């Protein structure tokens, strides 16, 4: 399994991203980009106790990281903008609240009204079958 870890460097205003291969809950190898323009990368073995200052797989500025997040979300079928997703959820919530209000009104108005008497024809028909 491959896991992504992110560490934020506030003074430098960038994110350090480490892609690490994990087996049996132990970090085994880290991805290294050898030549990004040629798409060459390799997996480097990690020591049993990885150092705290382990160099990341890549570093991105905040705006570049956000652009990557939006592109990945679009690619994998998510909402690229969390504001859009929030607006969709708020709309659905309003719809459900309106449905609950209408259903509540129907139930309470039905409880106030006495039950309707069935039509006389139906009463006669039901009583005739008994005799």
What structural class results from the helix and strand content? alpha+beta
Task: Report the C-alpha radius of gyration, rounded.
Answer: 32 Å
Strand percent estimate: 25-35%
Q: Could you name the ranges where pLDDT drops below 50 across 5 or more consecutive residues? A: none
Oligomer: single chain
Number-wise, the strands total 5
Rounded mean pLDDT is: 82
Cα-to-Cα separation, first versus last residue: 78 Å
Secondary-structure map with pairings?
Elements: E1 2-9, E2 14-23, E3 26-35, E4 40-45, E5 58-61, H1 62-75, H2 82-112, H3 120-128
Antiparallel strand pairs: 1-2, 2-3, 2-5, 3-4
Task: Summarize the entry for a quick read.
Helix content is 41%, strand content 29%.
Plain-language structure description:
Strand 1 and strand 2 form a beta hairpin. This protein has helices spanning 62-75, 82-112, 120-128; strands at 2-9, 14-23, 26-35, 40-45, 58-61. With 131 residues, it is α+β, with helices and mostly antiparallel strands. Strands 1, 2, 3, 4 and 5 form a five-stranded antiparallel beta sheet that branches. It contains three helices and five strands, in the order βββββααα. The chain is elongated, with a radius of gyration of 32 Å.
Key terms:
5 strands, 29% strand, elongated
């Amino acid at each position: 399994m491959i896991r992504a870890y992110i560490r934020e460097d506030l003074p430098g205003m960038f994110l350090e991203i480490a892609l690490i291969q994990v087996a049996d809950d132990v970090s085994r190898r880290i991805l290294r980009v050898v030549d990004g323009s040629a798409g060459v990368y390799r997996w480097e073995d990690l020591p049993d106790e990885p150092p705290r200052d382990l160099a990341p797989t890549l570093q991105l500025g905040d705006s570049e990281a956000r652009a990557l997040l939006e592109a990945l979300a679009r690619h994998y079928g998510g909402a690229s903008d969390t504001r859009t997703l929030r607006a969709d959820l708020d709309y659905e919530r309003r719809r459900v609240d309106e449905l609950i209000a209408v259903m509540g009104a129907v139930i309470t108005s039905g409880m106030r009204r006495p039950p309707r008497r069935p039509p006389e024809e139906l009463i006669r028909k039901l009583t005739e079958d008994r005799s």
